[in-house]
Amino acid sequence: MDRRTYTFVVASAAFLFFYLSLRAVVAPPQPEQAPPADQAAEVAAQDGGDVAQAESTAPTSDEVLGSGDEDAESETPETAGIASTKGETEWFTIGSMDPADKHNLLITFRNRGAGIERIEITTRDENGRFAYRRVDTRSGYLGYFAGQPNAKIDGVTVNVVGPGTPAALAVAASGEKGIQVGDVIVAIGETPIASVSDIQESLATSKPGNAVTVEVVRGGDSTKTLLFEAKLSEHPLDLIRLATYGGDDEIKGNLSRLSCLVTLAQVGRKSIPIGERSLQSMADPESLMWTASQQTGDDGSETIRFETTIGSQALESIGGEPVRMTRTFTIRPRSYVVDMDVEVVNLGENPQNLALRLEGPNGITPEGWWYSNKISPNFSGAAARDAVYRTTADGHGLISGMTLLKEARKTPEDPNYPIFASDSSEAASDLKYIGVDAQYFAVAFMPPPEKSSVGSYDRASATIVADASDIEKHKERAVNVSFFLNGKTIEVPPGKGFGQSVQMFAGPKEPDLLDQHGIGDFVYYGWFSFFSSLLSGLLHILQSIVGNYAVAIVLLTVIVRGCMFPLSRNAAVNAQRMQELAPEMKKIAEKYKDDMEGRLKAQQALQKRVGFNPLAGCLPMFLQLPIFMGLYRALSVDIDLRQKPLWSPNGWASNLAAPDQFMYWGDWMPDFIAGRGTGWLGPYLNILPIFVVVLFITQQKLFMPPATDEQTAMTQKVMTIMTLFMGLFFFRVPAGLCIYFIASSLWGIGERLLVKKTLPKGKHFDLDGDGDVIDAVATKRNGDGKKTLTEKLLEQVNQKTPEPPTTPPSKRKRPPKKKKR
C-alpha cells in the first residue's frame, strides 16, 4: 500500500483502540519525458552455465530463424551473411480450460517477442466451477481472441481461441464446431461488432450459463456466414493480462507489454545502456520475430518452442556475429509451474562474449487495488503489485510499486531500482527467487528442482512498466511492476552455446502450495502473524464443519469473545467503579484546583483506599489488540475467503475478502466520493459497514449514562462523532471483517447486559443484589443520617492531606538558602 494508505490503516487501528478504550471509560456497563513504451521496463535473466558441448551447424537458407524488424531490409547470404528471422505475427496457446484436460493454466503466447501475453487460471473446484475466477465482473465469458479490427469488413478478426473456452465449444447451426482463428466476429446477439470493446459491451449484461448467438464470417473474402450458439462461462482469473484488457481496473499510464521476454544483454564489449531495454543495434525484445512449434507429451504436458536468429546486419555494427536463440515453455496437468529454458548458440566464425537478459512477468492482476490493503516488511508499505525477492544476504525483501514509481519520476533516464549489481558480494547476488506479488496471487522465478539458486547473475533490478508521468494521483497503487535479470558474460566458441533453465510459479498464494516451492514468505501477516495463523486455522476448521465462511466467522467471533470474557468483565467492573468514584474525584479536583500536587495525592489516596486501579480498565483493551489485528490480517490475507459468498455466489456480498458492494454508484456519485482510488468510499455502496456503525452507536446510547455536566456532555458528543467517523474506516474493509464486527457488537451488547446483572458486591462499595449502586457516591445522606462509605473514606483522606494553600505558588515566599561555610 502507498504511504498515505499505510498511514491511514495504522491510524485507523490506533484510533479504533483509543475509541474503544475511551468508550469503556465514558460508557461503562451502564521533468524529463519518461522513456517511450518500448523502454519503460527492463527485464532479463540468464544462468552462467557451462558452455554446451554439442556441436551446432550453421543453418541453411531454409533454416533461417530470427529476430529483427519485419520492415528492415532483407539480408541474403551473399551480401550480409546469416539473416535475421522474418515472418507474420501469430498467437499460440498451451494448457486448456477444458476440465477433462486437468490443466491449471491456459497460457497465450505471441511469436513476435516469444513472450507471454496472457495467463488464465483454469483450476476447477469440486463443483466444477472455477476455483479462482474474476471477482470484479459477473458477466458471462466467451473467450480471449487477441482480436484486431478487420481491415476489409466491419468486425473483429479472431487471432487465437483457447481450448475448452466457450468460443471453442460453440456449435454452428450448420454443424460446424468451434470459432476458429481467422474468423471475423461481426455480431453477438443483436449487437454489431466493430472493435474489441464492442465484444465486451455486448456481453456486459449477460450471465454465466447464458447462451448467446455469435455471427462470424469465415474464409477471408468469402461471404460465408456462420451463426454459432455459445454457452457463456464465468470469467477465469486472468493472472497476467495486457493493460489494455484491464476493464474497470485499466489505469492510464500503465503499458501493455509481453511478459518474460528475452534478449542479448551483451555482445562483445557492448551491453545494454542504462535505462534501455536492448542493445543499440537490435530491435526491442518485443519486436523480435521467432518461429514456433508445439509438442504434447505422453504425460499430458504441453511444450511450445520458439527459435530466432539474430543475423549479421543486426550485430556487425557492434562487433558481433550471428547467434541463434531457442527458448521453450512447458506446463503439466495440475501444476502452476512453467518450465522455461533458453539456449544461445554462436553462429559466427570467432569466439564471442555473450550474456542474456530475461525480463520478468508484468500485468499481474491488480485485483481490488482500490480497497485491498497489503502490508509489507518495510515501513514504506506495499502497492497492489510489488517486486519481491530473496537473496542469501538480504533474506526476503519487498520493493513497493510506489517506491518504484517514485524512483522512476525522480530519475526518468534510469527508472530501474537495483537489487544487486556486478560488484555486489556473492551472498547479495545469490538469488533464491524473484517475482511480482499481488494481494492473493503471485508470479515468481524459482530455481529448477536440482538447484538451490535461480542462477548466476551480474545484475537484478525491479522496475515499472508504465509511463510514470501519466499515472494519476491516488492511482499510484495500481502501477504495473516487473523486474529483469542480466546474466554473467560467457565466452562462447564458434558453434557452441550455453543455456539457462528456470521455473516460473504462476498461481494463488495458498500457504501450503507456496511452501512446496520454497516461496512461503509471499504470504505475510505482519507483526501479529502468530495470532493470524492461529485464527485462520481455526476459521478453516469451523468452515469445514458448517460449510459457510460467514457462519464460521460468527462462530469464530463467539469463541474469541468468549475466551476474552474474563478480561471484558474485569474492564466492565473497573469502569463501573470509575463511574462511582467520579463525583468524589470531581470534588477533590474542585477543592485542589490550584494545587495539582495535592489534588493528585488526594485522588491517589482515595483510589488506594477503595482498591481501585485506573489502568485495570485499559489493560484488557491493549491485550485484545494483537487478537484484533491478527484476525484483521487473517481475514484480509486469507485467499480462502476470496470469492466465498455470504450466501449467494452471484449476488450481494459474494466475496467476503472484498466490500459487500450492495449497489454500484460510481456512474452518478462525484469522483471524490466514488472514484476508484480517488474517492473516499469507492464506486460501490456498501451496507455492512453501515450496520457496524449503527451497532456501535446503539451500544453507546444503551450504556452511556446521562451527562452530569457540560464537560461530560461535550465528551459524549465527541464520542458520537467519532463513532460516525468510524464508518469511513470500515467502508472499504472486507465483508468478512464487517461480519466479525457485527457479531462482536451484538455479543458486546449482550455481555454488558449480563455483566450488569452479575457484578459482585463491591469490597469498598455498597451494592444491592442486582449490582446497582445504593449509596457509594450518593450526594445526600441516608434516611438514618449516616454518612456513606465513600464520604467516610474521603474524610480520612482529607485528614491526612494538608489543606490547599490560598496563596498562588508564584507568590509564595521561599525560605532563605543556607549559606555555605
From TrEMBL:
GO terms for molecular function: membrane insertase activity. Keywords: Cell membrane, Chaperone, Membrane, Protein transport, Transmembrane, Transmembrane helix, Transport. Residues 810-821 have a biased composition (Basic residues). It is a multi-pass membrane protein. Residues 30-88, 796-821 are annotated as: Disordered. The chain crosses the membrane at residues 549-568, 614-635, 679-698, 718-743. Signal peptide: none annotated. Belongs to the OXA1/ALB3/YidC family. Type 1 subfamily. This is Membrane protein insertase YidC. The gene is yidC.
